[in-house]
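User: Here's a protein and a ligand (iron/sulfur cluster). What would the complex look like?
Assistant: Let me lay out the input and then the predicted complex.
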Amino acid sequence: MRGNFLKGYCGKILMVDLSDSTFEEIEIPDVIYEHFLSGVGLGAYILYKYIPQGADPLGPKNILGFVSGLLTGTGSFMTGRWLAVCKSPLTGGFGDANCGGTFSPALKQSGYDGIFFKGQAPTPKMLFIDNNGPQLLDASDLWGLDTVATEAAINQKVTTNKKLAIATIGPAGEHQSLIAGISNDGGRMAARSGVGTVMGSKKLKAVVLAGSKMIRSQDPQTLKAISRDYARKIKAANLPSLASGAMLPMMGKSMVATDKAIPIDGMLSTAIIKKWGTGFTNTMGMTMGDTPVKNWKGSVVDFPHRKYRHMNPDQIQKHETKKYHCYSCVIGCGGVCDINGISKGRFSHTHKPEYETVAAFGSLLLNKDRDSIFIINELLNRGGMDSISAGNTIAFAMECYEKGWLSPEVTGGLDLTWGNTEAIVTLVEQMIAGVGFGAILQHGVKKASAILGLESAPLAIHAGGQEPGMHDPRLDPILGIHYSCDPTPGRHTIGAGSYYTYMRIWEDVTWAPKVKLGEDKNDEYEANNQVGLKSMINACIKQILDGSGGCFFALVSGLNHFKLFDYLNAATGWQKTANEYMTIGLRMQTLRQAFNVREGINPRDFKMNPRLSGNPPLTTGPLKGKSFDLDAMMSVHYQFMGWDKKTGIPTKTALEDLGFCDLEMEGVTHG
Amino acid sequence: MADKKKPVIDYELCMACGICSGDCPLSCIALRKTDIDRYQKAYPVLDEYYRCTGCTRCAKACPMEAIRMM
Ligand code: SF4
Ligand code: SF4
Ligand code: SF4
């Protein structure tokens, strides 16, 4: 029997059939964890196995999963993240969205590494699990409520010994906006891939967890010792108390002033994140060229200091009343902000706007009104809509408007001139409600462009249907590889040249190239082997992280500090080397790619909008004239992944080497 | 309940990670003490003194060994 489970994972999942309200507990053999870890790897395994080929993403055959991480709840730090996984209605391929809060440990405390939903409920439902097991409850009275109100209503309705962990959709997911996310902890969003849309299509309003089962690991003492060691370093990572947000633009400038690599210790970035959260780059990204401007066609020249200075994180932090952090986090990038005054009493508080939201509703739209960003942030969190996708889509509409392709008649009288704050806020409200001109934009930029006509396609900034995060590949071309080659395209958290430098993986993985002081960064604009290898490593380590429940900011604090591989060995007792874990990461990523291929996706079609590779190049700002050959870069990435260099399809040899045949997954597609 | 000892948190050692709060089966510990460090991080407080059964789960879970049952 498997009662005596001591490997960090629970060894089973729950499959809920919403069509007939039945539950099935499925035991997962150890060999699956050893091949794919838990988290995103377990999710990919279940999706591959149980979603029939060609399933409609918004139909009953799609499966939506909530997965925890292998390390969540084991005494490890920075491992409290969960993911929603499904076939994505935005890309037609693998979909996932990463989120923090308290939901990840709650999954395992309820006894499952993942909870998966198939079918569609005839009327709105919520899943409730406590130590007595799962129940599907009526949620008709919650349908129509925003995410924050939904949590409040559930807390009123359900009384338990343990505080509830609640994941829920808002109106955007209910009415099938394609850019809807899933929220927990009052507005922390699993935003990407349209996971909230799939949840809405299943009429699943919320997942409510109150279990308190123990999570057992092989070697708890070692896990804690690794944690204490990491904590000591995090505690010591502090900026001088004089450091102020006003210095950040200068830092940005100095970082692009040289073409030479400076492999600084990741703990510096940790000190910065401890102070400001992701907001540190609100203004630093402007002078570096990292932050996109005016639908990715402008630069800091179009949104100069007198405008972007309003996004100084010190100014944002003035509203912060306390820090917010995910379970097991010792960095704490989040915050809770008082916006009662700003919103004239409409909202009492909001989660501190992330950099992504500040950029997507600031420079991308030439909007300098900081207060509006707090309000938009809360509107989107409550509506359950992805801020990155929403901002990119409005930027697209503004560029169409500038070109005269959209008249006020089409926009319902909205004046979509760049920087028109009032119109932006109205449009966000319309998109969430699915009304007015917002009804056209609510599905993201690809669909909006298709509705408005083909000539607008060059202005629609996306990769395979997913709008990109607020980081510019013209500054960091390896980022562009990940935007274009990942099975979940358009994602800024998969990898970049800069992340590679920070994580110092060469100290663990023997074949990983070391970044040397003074290396020429211009080499990263070429499709060379170094670029192929680095991007392959990025993709693999990110899978390991997402299989563990790990936080991206722990990864970039440096693997020399955040001992991910040691943690995994202590939790499971496996004693694998870092190199062996990298093979697991490669297998996980290859399975995600194989899922896409099976679903009929041509990986080359995920190539991001040419604007993002500098075709044509920018004419002003720090990235003026920068461009690279994206097709060639994609080829070299595919090659190092063991996928066909031309097509991006995993080769037969790669699949055999990764052991898919032994796993009786012979259906896994190859070139 | 024979063992009525309750968790006492040593804020010198505590990292405000929230593990104790998330692992307590009765959610007795809230993260709300913000006057410990310069970042206003939310540190744990035993809010539900009388509901706490003294089960020691929080103390065993704390990686920093910052909780003593007293
Ligand atoms: S650093 Fe931020 S995202 Fe990461 S675990 Fe901590 S609070 Fe969550
Ligand atoms: S588990 Fe320990 S370190 Fe973490 S918040 Fe509780 S007392 Fe502090
Ligand atoms: S001793 Fe048990 S009941 Fe009391 S706070 Fe700790 S975990 Fe909760």
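Summary: The pocket of iron/sulfur cluster (ligand 2) is lined by residues B 9, 14-20, 44, 62, 64, 66-67 (CB under 6 Å).
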